[in-house]
Amino acid sequence: MYFIGIDLGTSAVKLLLMDQDGKIIKIASRDYPILFPKLGWAEQNPEDWYVQTIDGLKELLSDIDKEQVAGIGFGGQMHGLVVLDKDDNVIRPTILWNDNRTAAETDYLNYEIGKDKLSEYTANIAFAGFTAPKILWMRKHEPENFERIAKIMLPKDYIAYKLTGVHCSDPSDASGTIFYDVKNKRWSKEMMEICGIREDQLPTVYESYEVVGTIKEDIAEELGLRKDVKVVAGAGDNAAAAVGTGTVGDGKCNISLGTSGTIFISSKSFGVDKNNALHSFAHADGNYHLMGVVLSAASCNKWWMEDILKTTDFAGEQKNIKNLGKNHVYFLPYLMGERSPHNDPNARATFVGMTMETSREDMTLAMMEGVTFAIRDSYEIAKSLGINIERTNMCGGGAKSPLWRKILANVLNLKVDILEVEEGPALGGAMLAAVGCGLYSSVEEIAQKVVKIKETVEPDPEIVELYNQRYEVFKKLYPSLKGFFKEMHID
Amino acid sequence: MSKKFLLAVDLGTSGCKITVFDFNGKVMGSWTGEYQTYYPHSGYAEQDPQEWWQVASHGIRGVLEKNTIDPREIAAIGVDGTSWACIPVDKEGTPLRPAMLWLDRRAQKQADWMKERSGEERLVGISGNPVDPAYITPKILWIKENEPEVYKKTYKFLQSNAYLVYKLTGQYSQDYSQGYGFHFFNISTGSWQEDIADELGISIDFMAPLYHCHEVVGTVTAKAAEETGLVSGIPVVAGGLDAACCTLGAGVINPGQTQEQGGQAGGMSIQVDKALIHPKLILGYHVIPNQWLLQGGTVGGSGTLRWFNEQLGSFERLLGRERGMSPYEIMSHEAQGISPGSDGLIFLPYMAGERSPIWDSKARGVFFGLSYDKTRAHMIRSIMEGVAFSLLHNLETAEEVGAKAQILNSVGGAANSHVWTQIKADVTGKVIHVPFSDHATSLGAAILAGLGAGVYSSFEQAVSETVRIQRIHEPDDKNHRIYQDYYRLYLDLYERLKESFEQLHYMQEMIFR
To answer: CA of B456, closest CA in chain A: separation in Å?
Structure first.
């Protein structure tokens, strides 16, 4: 039996075929353009997603036994606003998660409605990329379009809608709208009122692994699939990726050091910290998760190596680095401001502590440690909410560096697992489909079966102690400079 | 035989440089030799004065022979030396122990005692200088306490240049410019303050007679002639502090003129015509009678850029090799392409702590304001700007006591960079003259010798005949205004990070204890 995972990404859709044991059979992908109609704007045409998804599916399904395909699940880029009119026409291109036009609307939500109110209604605060500010923007700047809205959905939900005709979403993706009440898992009445929308415009929320319907007949025919292929709701890309790495159930942790860095912690109980430093979202396994985002992670390394050191030999620069925990240089990794936990767009990266004896290696190590300390900032908040974590996965580009694995293990005092397979949200989507089709009783069960550890890095108590002390210095640097970042920004 | 030349002996920390000039300041020959610094314990730093003499006498002979200079044509000799060297000698002028250098920090306890005994403010008020183990007074007290047999045998305490003057002439001397090494030297009146010396339990008899720096102390003895290849009878002036000689050699002879030093470390000396004391700065006599130098010393000189080159500059070194340029030329070129303020990147150049005016040994280097659009060119320019801010910080501090710098004369490696010098002009808002200064310190000593021998009738004449300006940098008003804002941020950044520096310092101490 086969399951299809569809990861609707920002630059491409990735399609993955998995068998019932979690083995990956085949992968295909199709690109589509991002439109930048104005500086800071970013849009895509939902039709492009659909056309390319169908095209990619055809490649994925060529030369396999199509009768074996039982289910389809999703992971997808979050927050994007898809709006359809009463005839199911797309009203305007989707405003994407990385679109920056909504600064005024975000400020309105955070400072006029107030963060405390937002947190009370949704368990989160507003970010420019989230969905609610986009709706407010549309209401103000495109009132005639706003009036025509019959259905609101998120990017991956559009594909589900096209495949099944069911207007659906899931809790993990809905959490990123900030008009979803995460704690109680329902659309927030207060937020709907603030945004000027009605519940009948919003999708029905299914658990990520729940079947929303079967594939439409004409599509099944076009693709050569059975007519009873089930479609599950799927999840937002972070939650879907977490499923793929087994970060489900209680106290599991996944750290990804990609362009940005994320620390994703699954939990059976709902929790939110008092400063909303972490996103508190519903998870694809039916429970909850916390997530911290470090805006610049492996990208710090790339910038340092390529733009500053002018080298492409990343491994060569790292290979002579020793003395973990004894570095005297510190780095704040805020190359483009910071998300978690400071939520400060004005923050800037800073090296502190150089002496005439400081070496190139010390600077490189400080950069890697700085990113890792920033991850620890989020980790500490999760711990303060009573979540007990014993080990973490590590993935993304940063995980390729043996040095970075060691730094992470010692800075967090956690065992760091490197997984055999790193296929991101598409794998998670396929796994959710397998649960939906009844092959597994829960997302936790399939994760236990499918996810395998390749290598584990253990922390060294002596180095852990040194890093605890270094972290004490690190964590005071941001508060010392906070006002200064603001002052500098006025220039 | 007519006199044609002046001979300068420059006694530095790492070595000794002998230079022969003609009367127009042209270098006829130069020779450099090194000697060892001994660090017998942590915080101790010593050299053997007899080794100085060996190296110097060998060098004098070498420079004469190599350049076929007839010693009879030498009109006079000037010696300059490092500050705060403490050399106890007996009646025969023999050193009783190695010289304790300016780097030597062993006398902390004695310095603390001095503050307790005579009051810090009072000592600073009289001497114009902080009470710090680098100075000679606490070192004398250390010898008294720890090496009583040396102390008992001591006839005079000499300083670096005075020791070599003694070796050349057999005469003891103490020049004015080195007087600031003693806290019982009244910096305002130029005389020994006996009550303070008494209080501290040091006899004034230890002090050699005071000389103006250009005054002849004696002539080369037959013995010295034999050891150096000189001829006896050549007049030797008292000479002075190396930094002050460098200031003279850079053409600073009028109040308000300021020497700006961009060597490994940085610094500035403003010439003032009265004793203006600032607790955060250093005040000494200039080598010109009745003139003073108010000095600030910073850690950030060209050394910070050298650090960047050595650690992060493989790109410039490679490009330099390809193009036949020095990496520093390439760096200057890169810095030129970035606008003033480095788009918000600020560098604190406190990479070995900072000396004046903040005197914080725990301060550290910082690059603040990095973002994806920042390049290494930004980092290079920010280093240059940070060093310029540390200069301005000292100039502003000096202004608090009314010492106003007019024109800056820049010397040292950093002055070779047009871009860096222009940044300094724009940051400080001052006109900068760049003299040919490769030999500025020795030239200063030679000018003193020339004045002593009557070759020149005045400092003005001497400087006008020997010091040449190679470039003039005018400050740009627009850039100066931009830098005013960045300078405030630079000061603020340190204040905000001060506590973290302290925390960092104690953590490092704990790790490496």
So the answer is: 43
Q: Is A354 on the interface with B (CB under 8 A)?
A: yes
Question: CA of A334: which chain B residue's CA is closest?
Answer: B371
Please say if the pLDDT value at position B437 is more than 90.
Answer: no
Q: Is there a contact between A480 and B500 if contact means CB atoms under 8 Å apart?
A: yes
Q: What is the C-alpha separation between B346 and A334, in angstroms, rounded? A: 15
Rounded Cα distance, A399 and A403, in Å: 9
Is residue A490 over pLDDT 60?
no
Say yes or no to pLDDT of B512 above 80.
no
Mutation target to probe the A interface, by most A beta carbons within 10 A, among B319, B504, B510, B512 is B504
CB contact under 8 A, A307 and B369: no
At residue B266, φ and ψ (nearest 5 deg) are: -115, 170
Peptide bond into A341 cis (omega under 30): yes
Residue A279, pLDDT score: 96
pLDDT-derived band at B300 (thresholds 50, 70, 90) equals confident
Contacts of A469 (CB under 8 A, 6+ apart): B507, B510, B511
pLDDT at A491: 45
Candidates A48, A99, A181, A237; catalytic one: A237
Contact status, residue B158 vs residue B171, Cβ threshold 8 Å: no
Give contacts of B 292-321 with A, CB under 8 A.
Answer: 303, 307, 311-312, 314-315
Q: Does A464 touch chain B (CB under 8 A)?
A: no
Reply yes or no on whether A237 is catalytic. Answer: yes
Measured CA to CA in angstroms, residue A70 lies from A63, A245, B165, B285 at distances of 17, 22, 100, 94
pLDDT digits over A440-488, tens only?
Answer: 999 999 999 999 999 999 999 999 999 999 999 999 999 999 999 988 7
- Report the pLDDT averaged over residues A310-335: 95
Alpha carbon distance B390, B315 (integer Å): 27
For A226-256, the DSSP string reads: -TT-EEE--EEHHHHHHHHTT--SSSEEEEE
CATH fold for the domain made of A248-421+460-490: Nucleotidyltransferase; domain 5 (3.30.420)
Label residue A345 by pLDDT band (50, 70, 90): confident
The residue of chain A with its CA nearest to that of B511 is A326
Cα–Cα distance measured from residue B60 to residue B79, given in angstroms and rounded to the nearest whole number: 12
Q: Nearest C-alpha of chain B: how many angstroms from A424?
A: 26
Sheet of B266-272: strand order equals: B282-285, B292-298, B266-272, B258-262, B408-411, B432-435, B469-473
Check for a shared fold between A2-239 and A248-421+460-490: yes
Q: What is the DSSP string of B388-455?
A: HHHHHHHHHHHHTTT----SEEEESGGGG-HHHHHHHHHHHT--EEEE--TTHHHHHHHHHHHHHTTS
Compute the mean pLDDT over every residue in chain B, rounded to the nearest whole number: 96
Closest partner residue to B370 among A299, A335, A483, by Cβ? A335
What's the complex ipTM? 0.91
**Residue A26 CB: number of other CB atoms within 10 A?**
16
Express as a percent the part of chain A with pLDDT over 90: 95
Dist CA B107 CA B466 (whole Å): 41
The answer to whether B372 contacts A308, with C-beta atoms less than 8 Å apart, is no
Query: Taking CA atoms, what residue in B is nearest to A353?
Result: B364
Instruction: Please name each of the domains of chain B with its CATH number.
Output: 5-243 (3.30.420.40), 252-436+476-513 (3.30.420.40)
- Which CATH superfamily includes the segment(s) A2-239? ATPase, nucleotide binding domain (3.30.420.40)
Strand order across the A279-282 sheet: A279-282, A288-294, A261-267, A252-257, A391-395, A415-419, A453-457
Per-residue pLDDT reduced to its tens digit, A233-284: 999 999 999 999 999 999 999 999 998 999 999 999 999 999 999 999 999 9
For chain A, what are the domain ranges? Answer: 2-239, 248-421+460-490
